[in-house]
């Protein structure tokens, strides 16, 4: 198995969870949303703690630039998971993920770079990825300061993409 295969498959699983969570337009289903939320937090941890750490200093300048953009995306995505889900919040989350995921799993994206650089050592990276513990999601917070933080993270993400 490659890093690309493993994490692209996880993207598909997470997308299916989110789709199930909003299948009823009247409400958000807690169980699939919880699976999406905790799964996405673990997915981000895998990328930040294993892949980004591995790539720093080993990759070409454009990959370093890509990591900065993806890191800003991760901060915005994580902030969107703090308040209770609403259809508007999920629409924003889907927009961000729709721009984010192709940078990772499209041909020539981050996952392909990781597989290429790891070469024969890919299994060691896969083992480190599998060792990342499941995420525990804290209680939702729905306060004005949280929503202000989300706006700052989305603005920082936009700024990182402009550089």
Description:
There is one protein chain. With 163 residues, this protein is mainly alpha-helical. The chain has one domain (3-162). 74% of the residues lie in helices and 0% in strands. The longest helix has 26 residues, at 30-55.
Summarize this, please?
This protein has 163 residues and is mainly alpha-helical. Helices cover 74% and strands 0% of the residues.
Write the layout of secondary structure elements.
Elements: H1 3-21, H2 30-55, H3 61-80, H4 87-105, H5 110-118, H6 122-130, H7 144-162
Task: Name a few traits of the molecule.
mainly alpha
Structural class: mainly alpha
Contiguous runs where pLDDT drops below 50 for at least 5 residues:
none
**Could you tell me the mean pLDDT?**
96
Q: Count of helical segments? A: 7
Tell me about the biggest sheet? none
Share in β-strands = under 5%
Number of domains: 1
